[in-house]
């Protein structure tokens, strides 16, 4: 078993050796032991943009989760290889919408709504789902452009199917002035539309998926902060429920949260509702501010955390030896249509 120092030494040596042939993008939720070696850090949008722009690196070692690495593979050139240091780094939300469920849903929804519906998918979805959306004229969204993309979608069709995160979908639609009574939920487990009123009234159909990390922030956490620290501002990710976002002071993507705290007044105090590694990093970077996690039982994303220093070192070692087993290679047909959906988004941000 190698020590931390040996593993770090290995990563540094291979990084130096490969130079600009190697690119290591890192999502903000990654562990510090990995982030220290990042060539770039970012939210989902920035990491997608960087993948598209990078023409130089032969090997992109993606420190994030599977759907992000797939996006990088789709947006990079044929001769660029994308590696995921641990192939088990999935995303429970992305897994909540599979192709069979989506095809069944679409068939039923088309029966109800005919041609009046357009699919949109959060980038936190498989390449196959992005491809489905691309084939049906839709686009992807991230947490930092969801509002812009939903507006665009309503210029195309009067109704939107939003996959797979009901909370981001609901929070974004609400901000655009759509009433909660104009939003239905599609339940992919029993193939049913959950809605009380007349279907003609529906403007958004929310796929019944969620993030298991952001679901851990609740109204009780907010009430506790409000009573213990009345002056504290609460900032959360829009993957949190509608109730939590409504009771918070601000909501936005990981990048939005980072920027908000960076520009906040010295001495100000904040409760943050997002993944633990990022919250801890923000706390460390701002000793002049009082910052806590909105949920005192810090919430980790277990799959993001699968990427650790040993996996990064092993992945780089295998690349160096020309035998990587961790290559993400999206099916060609899926990649073609998923790219359409991604490009519609990238052209508008
Ligand atoms: P962003 O970094 O785009 O806000 O995404 C958060 C997230 O949950 C990624 O999985
Ligand atoms: Fe998926 Fe949530 Fe983890 Fe992001 S934080 S990768 S949405 S499970």
UniProtKB/TrEMBL annotation:
Keywords on record: 4Fe-4S, Cytoplasm, Iron, Iron-sulfur, Metal-binding, Pyridine nucleotide biosynthesis, Transferase
Entry-linked InterPro entries: NadA (IPR003473), NadA_sf (IPR036094), Quinolinate_synth_A_type3 (IPR023515)
Its EC number(s): 2.5.1.72
One Gene Ontology term of the molecular function aspect: transferase activity
Record-listed iminosuccinate binding positions: 27, 44, 122-124, 143, 237-239, 254
Gene3D superfamilies, sorted: NadA-like
Key word Cytoplasm present: yes
Cofactor field: [4Fe-4S] cluster
Broadest EC class assigned to this enzyme: transferase
Catalytic activity: iminosuccinate + dihydroxyacetone phosphate = quinolinate + phosphate + 2 H2O + H(+)
Location in or out of the cell: Cytoplasm
Coarse class of the protein's main subcellular location: cytoplasm
Function: Catalyzes the condensation of iminoaspartate with dihydroxyacetone phosphate to form quinolinate.
Family that this chain belongs to: Belongs to the quinolinate synthase family. Type 3 subfamily.
Protein's recorded name: Quinolinate synthase
Organism for this UniProt entry: Cytobacillus mangrovibacter
